[in-house]
Amino acid sequence: MAQKLELHGRIISKGVAEGEALVCRGPLSFMASAIANESGIVRIHGHELEGKCVKDKVVVYDTDQFSTGASLSFYTKCSVYKTGPAALICREMHNIAGGAAIYCEVPAMDAIREGTPCELIKSGDWVKVDAVRGVIEVTRK
Amino acid sequence: MKLSDEDRKKLDGEEGVAVREAMDYLVKLGEAFEAEEMVDLHSCHVFGDYHTIGDGGLQLYRKYADLGAKVRVRSSVEPISMDLRLWPRLNLPPEYPGKQIQINNALREMDLCLSYSCIYHFTQNVPRFGENLAWIEGNATAWANSVTGARGNRENSITCLLAGIAGRIPMHGLLDPRKRRGQRLVEIEPGLVARLIGPGRSTADLGVLGMTIADLGYDLIPVVEGVPPLLTNEQMKAMFACCGPVLTTALMLLVGISPEAPTVRAAFGGPIPPGTEKQHVSMKDIRAGYEKLTNARKFDVDIVSTGCPFKTIYEIQEAAKLLSGKKIKDGILFFIHTDFTTWHLAEEMGLIESIEKAGAYVTRDLCPFSLPIEDMYGPEKVIATDSFKTVRLLAGKGKPQYCFGTLSDCVNAAVTGTFVSTRWR
């Protein structure tokens, strides 16, 4: 039977969603030049997620670096191209992604009580984010 | 979160659908980020370029313009994805001008001041101590927080418009005076900053200084010792360019300069808390920063780009002097970026004619960030720049190659065709 893990944290954007985890240790940005709006593919040169796609994933990262324009890029991904993530989990949510998630109704959480999210969740894990109860359920790959 | 009677009326829709939607979003944002109350907003600054905001951003702006929304505070707009004068000569994707004009129209209808600038804090949207800001531009917000004591986060591009429409903002992050205390101490080697200031190189050197401070702890507010009190606006601007591409907060407490940091003790709100990290910056770090920023595999330059953040009139004067009597090599594009307010001043002062005579362009309204560089240029092109922000902010675009150096070295590269760094000889 697959190993399960339950995590708890602060709710930034309410909602429930699940998907495959895409995890990086460092900061990330959803701005158009960092993650292409049309494809959802990360194109930050040398980034640990370069070439990976965020579409429908539960994206786990540290916090938002680069541009505040990422919020409208995030909105374009979700509303026009349907390349947005299923949910967001950050060590510390920046208002850049947090506000975008709220506006786009994408569930988002941070400040995970059990530890640093990028150490608790691995890429490929199946993650259910219940940002109504504040609970994250991780099923190991 | 505490709401006033006026806030509740706005939430109930008494001031229309746009204000209701804006307030609804702002309340959710405030609750998420644990703001205790909503406060009056004094100024907003919003994104404007099609490249960043995309069709979603255009639809969002159009929606609020159609709802009759107006911003009710002092305002300004970031650079856009076209030069209203020069664009036919730029290799812009065909849909860009049309989309950009639609964005401009929506912003105009909402009463935004159409500054198309990232240095609006020197002109149309000057901050004052204690004001609450909703600004998307990092370098300007860092300036406002650190030099004037106005209060603002690196606020997101949805919030800035909606807060402007509602005239209110949740008091989260740096908007809360209690959250404006230092979180680490940075000691700059005595005398270092004075050695970073010089004709033709201040922008590059001080940009690297800011980047170095930011890289030492990107999400922690630095208390910085060792910045002389009377740097010029341009020198400060170069240092604050780190806010955004590297620093995720927007406050640098410069001891002896920032109103909230007359002393180190004041900057920390008391004695330095135990466990606070002490960091040092020396000339060795500046040199290492230069080396990290050059990733070109060849040094024959195709493009020279300067003015991220935009050039002030005095920096355009400096560029004109460096270009005087010189000729840019055929095939090399040399861009000096500024806003149209400054451009017209430069024209009146004869600087545009002088710079164009050398074969360079002074662009208006647009910047490298607002252009699809990956499509316009491609990864084989080599860009020389004195803007660390250009290198770090555009690092994801089509893997361009950068030569980082002083403005003097960038001018020489444009004249000879080959970039040679003379800074560390």
Characterization of this structure:
The complex is a heterodimer of chains A (141) and B (425). Chain A is of the alpha/beta class. Chain A has 3 helices and 8 strands; from the N terminus they run ββββαβαβαββ. Chain A has an 8-stranded mixed β-sheet, covered by helices on one side. In chain A, strand 7 and strand 8 (135-139) form a beta hairpin. The radius of gyration of chain A is 13 Å and the shape is globular. Chain A starts with a strand and ends with a strand. The relative contact order of chain A is 0.30. In chain B, strand 13 (382-385), helix 16 (388-393) and strand 14 (401-404) form a beta-alpha-beta unit. Helices cover 39% and strands 13% of the residues of chain B. Chain B starts with a helix and ends in a 9-residue tail after the last helix. In chain B, helix 5 crosses helix 9, helix 8 packs across helix 11 (283-293) and helix 12 packs parallel to helix 14. Chain B has a 5-stranded parallel β-sheet with strand order 12-11-10-13-14. Chain B has helices at residues 5-11, 17-32, 50-66, 96-109, 138-148, 157-166, 192-195, 202-215, 233-240, 264-268, 283-293, 313-323, 340-348, 351-357, 373-376, 388-393, 407-416; strands at 38-40, 43-46, 74-77, 133-135, 168-170, 184-188, 222-225, 253-254, 278-281, 303-306, 333-338, 361-364, 382-385, 401-404. Chain B has 425 residues and is an alpha/beta fold. Classes of the chains: A alpha/beta (141), B alpha/beta (425). Chain A binds chain B through residues 10-13, 27, 31-34, 37, 43-47, 63-73, 75-80, 92-100, 102-103, and chain B through 25, 28-29, 32-33, 47, 49, 51-57, 59-60, 78, 136-138, 153-160, 172-173, 218-219, 244-246, 248, 369, 373-374, 393-399.
Topology, pairings included?
The complex is a heterodimer of chains A (141) and B (425).
Chain A: E1 4-8, E2 10-13, E3 16-23, E4 58-61, H1 70-81, E5 87-90, H2 95-104, E6 108-110, H3 117-120, E7 126-130, E8 135-139
Parallel strand pairs in A: 3-4, 4-5, 5-6
Antiparallel strand pairs in A: 1-8, 2-6, 3-7, 7-8
Chain B: H1 5-11, H2 17-32, E1 38-40, E2 43-46, H3 50-66, E3 74-77, H4 96-109, E4 133-135, H5 138-148, H6 157-166, E5 168-170, E6 184-188, H7 192-195, H8 202-215, E7 222-225, H9 233-240, E8 253-254, H10 264-268, E9 278-281, H11 283-293, E10 303-306, H12 313-323, E11 333-338, H13 340-348, H14 351-357, E12 361-364, H15 373-376, E13 382-385, H16 388-393, E14 401-404, H17 407-416
